[in-house]
Amino acid sequence: MIERLKGLRSLDIEVATRAAIAAAVPLLILVALGRVDWAPYASFGAMAALYGRSEPYETRWRSVSTAAVGMVVSVGLGILVAVAGAPLGLVAAVLGLVIVGGVLLTVTLGLFPPTPLFFVFGFLICAEIPTTADEIGIRMVITIAAAGFAVLLSLSGWVLRRAAGGREGRYFSSLGRLPTPRPRAYRDAAVWINIAQLVLGSAVAGSIALLAGVGHPTWAVVSVVAVVPPPRAPHSASRSVHRIIGTVIGVGVSAAVLLPDPPAVVIVLVIAVCQFAAEILVGRNYGAALVFVTPLALSISHLASTAPVPGLLLDRVIATTLGATVGLLAVLTARFATRRSDPAAG
């Protein structure tokens, strides 16, 4: 980990700072207005800033704006499901659509992070927040405003680089990451295997959590999506174990942050710091990034929840372990199936 951090460039700090600002500004505005219960909508809109890192602006605008639309649609679906009372069958059906759409979107456009995790997370959390029909508009406005701010912030460096002219290399790091769009990704069997892993794994983890009476089964589903790698990524058990460890450690970090019951403004700052750290690490070690993604997620959820923190944390440790285990089994199953169908791959 230390060796990975030694490779940090000024560009890494730049993009991570933008991601942190994208999260902090709308949340601080909500704190000032006394409406921290709207924090999840602003937070998920702000997650658009996690996309398009290190890309030239001619492709970044597409990546970030597409991610913003994906986050807004995911949150919007969650709000509509919440208004309908979040019946289990409807949640499961729409979750399947979000997974399919999220995977196809990330693979087809070459988005990074190459996972539907944030889309799934945004949908599930917003689906479980009690909402009435007259609140749809304001919650969507908050999400769209935060996503729009994240897009503008992500593209803001274009103005400075234009002003630098031919001296760009002297003042700014080069933008070398080019996404690899795959317009025919929907024809790739590996993409649909990945979708099947996520859909079936989510259904299994969620069902076990419900039958076992685990509180907040949503986190079991989120953990499945966090553990299963994207299409054609190495299906390594060690990688999945690293993700499990990162998630569980992240729950411990969350306990240290939330158990003292800090004021909302402190939680907002924690969210900003976690978004900064997650952006730094997500391209280097996803398991390490989950140490910060987890408290980021739990802090967002906590701002909109009145439930006692100790019970929530215990539920989330159990649900996280369950979901991560199911995700690992999905990884091993796909690995075994791949080796059976193609002995040369083993």
TrEMBL record:
Membrane as a keyword?
A: yes
Spell out the GO cellular component terms annotated for this protein, sorted alphabetically and separated by semicolons. Answer: membrane
Places the protein is found:
Membrane
Positions of the Integral membrane bound transporter domain:
205-329
Q: What is its main location?
A: membrane
**Keyword check for Transmembrane:** yes
The transmembrane residues are 20-41, 61-83, 90-111, 140-160, 289-305, 317-337
Q: How does this protein sit in the membrane?
A: Multi-pass membrane protein
Alphabetically ordered keywords of this record: Membrane, Transmembrane, Transmembrane helix
A matching Pfam family: FUSC_2
InterPro entries for this protein: Memb_transporter_dom
Q: What is this protein called?
A: FUSC family protein
User: Which taxonomic lineage is given here?
Assistant: Bacteria, Bacillati, Actinomycetota, Actinomycetes, Micrococcales
